[in-house]
Design a protein that fits this description.
alpha+beta; Phosphatase 2c, domain 1; five-stranded parallel sheet; five-stranded antiparallel sheet; 19 strands; globular
Length: 460
């Protein structure tokens, strides 16, 4: 078997690293990942990779520092090094030359273009005899000292030129589109009076239809206070517009298991709302061979409760972003075993679940998985909380921590946990209401995003 070529990634964003890793592995590369430059340097020294790809802005050690350290190491200096940059300033190129970078790739990047740069660099390896030359460069009135080998300078200039050509093509295409749009605008202006009259009629009908759709969406939410032995549930759901991209629900799967979820679709408006309602309808406790949550079984009373990670996997394959008008959704879905009081859940790109032990302080349960619909066949991690009488958990949408005040400062996790701490000795209903009131007070003019909060307490 041919040994795979190894690529080392240094990227502090878990999601971006995971997506890049999947692309590289699909092309047959072996991939290792470090969440900052310092760890990347350690991994490179432990086992020399064939190529390194590094983000620039990272904690502990930046991409520039990582590159300079690698190029200063006799054992690593010939490894091709790609920096991921916005190229917002010509000084970036000079600094890249100085630290020894072989290529720049502009963010956001086309994965296929990045893969082509990887292939090109591996096809033209740096030689040990590529001696560095010290040059004095003047740019925008500033003088720089650049140390770089001939092959390294050539590689970097080629990548910079390719980036510039790509951006120029995008600009030409945009100018062509603008010219066509300008001509089309002249045509539209001739019919503007007629269209405005028709638009007013359409708006009146749409307002009526939106109000009706909002009533239908509200009717699909849980009704009244649920009567579930050993469990107390409270919730609040407030859309920022007529229709919401959020959706929440909870229901018994059988006499033993209780399911709960919160869904948050990207964007706002009718399309987001339709996807939210569709997902909500798919998440039904009805037993059938096509059900996501409960399937027929010859054991356990004729039904089998599907683990949350499997539910997320199936949703991810049913709702690919490309088929939903580039919409995706985050979700937290959990199943409570009321006999053992164990809560198993999956969090797909969603804000962290809050756990409040009886008599204790609220704490975030850290999770890190991608949103539903981003990448096909994504495996999701299942988490577990062992609860006890008096314990509470809270599921919520990002409309809570990301709510902004007039200075655009977010409400944040700390204020959310502080609000829940203040109501720890009150009922779970009062706690949920208190958190929503705190968000509204913070925003002064009301939240600009949908807000969904679901609190669950073990009572005995």
């Amino acid at each position: 078997m041919t040994e795979k070529i190894e690529v080392l990634i240094a990227e502090d964003s878990r999601i971006q690293a995971k997506m890049l890793r999947k692309k590289l592995e699909a092309k047959g590369y072996a991939v290792r990942w470090a969440e900052n430059g310092k760890l990347g340097l350690e991994l490179a020294r432990q086992q020399r990779p064939a190529l390194i790809i590094s983000d620039i802005e990272m904690p502990e050690m930046s991409g520039y520092q990582f590159c300079e350290a690698a190029k200063s190491d006799p054992q690593l200096r010939t490894i091709p090094f790609i920096l991921l940059s916005t190229l917002s300033d010509p000084e970036d190129i000079i600094r890249g030359l100085h630290v020894g970078a072989d290529n720049y790739v502009t963010k956001p990047y086309d994965p296929e273009y990045l893969l082509s740069r990887v292939n090109d660099l591996l096809s033209t390896p740096l030689g040990e005899d590529d001696d560095e030359t010290e040059l004095q460069v003047k740019l925008a009135g500033k003088e720089y000292t650049v140390k770089a080998g001939k092959q390294q300078v050539l590689n970097l200039l080629v990548s910079t030129f390719e980036n510039a050509v790509g951006k120029n093509r995008e600009l030409v295409a945009a100018n062509q589109d603008l010219s066509l749009a300008r001509d089309q605008l002249k045509v539209w202006n001739n019919d503007l009076k007629t269209l405005n009259s028709e638009l007013e009629n359409v708006n009146q009908r749409m307002a009526h239809d939106l109000a009706a759709a909002a009533k239908i969406q509200q009717s699909l939410l849980p009704s009244g206070a649920p009567d579930i032995p050993s469990v107390k549930i409270a919730w609040d759901y407030v859309p920022c517009d007529e229709l919401a991209g959020d959706f929440l629900n909870f229901f018994p799967l059988d006499d033993r298991y209780l399911a709960a979820f919160v869904v948050d679709v990207s964007g706002h408006g009718v399309a987001s709302s339709l996807l939210a309602v569709t997902v909500g309808r798919v998440m039904t406790p009805m037993v059938s061979s096509s059900s996501l949550l409960v399937k027929p079984s010859d054991e356990d009373g004729g039904r089998r409760v599907i683990p949350p990670a499997e539910v997320a996997y199936e949703l991810n394959n049913r709702f690919p972003m490309e088929d939903q008008g580039n919409l995706y959704f985050t979700m937290v879905y959990g199943v409570l075993d009321r006999q053992t009081q164990e809560f198993k859940f999956v969090s797909a790109g969603h804000p962290n679940v809050v756990h409040v032990p009886a008599g204790g302080k609220p704490a975030l349960v850290e999770t890190a998985d991608m949103a539903i619909g981003w990448i096909e066949d994504t495996e999701f991690e299942e988490h577990s909380l062992q609860l006890a009488p008096g314990d509470r958990i809270y599921l919520y949408s990002d409309g809570v921590p990301e709510a902004m005040d007039h200075d655009l400062e977010e409400f944040g996790d700390e204020r959310m946990l502080a609000s829940l701490t203040e109501t720890v000795n009150e009922s779970v209903d009062a706690s949920v209401k208190g958190l929503y009131d705190a968000v509204v007070q913070w925003c002064t003019k009301g939240p600009k995003d949908d807000v969904s909060i679901l609190g669950l307490e073990i009572t005995e």
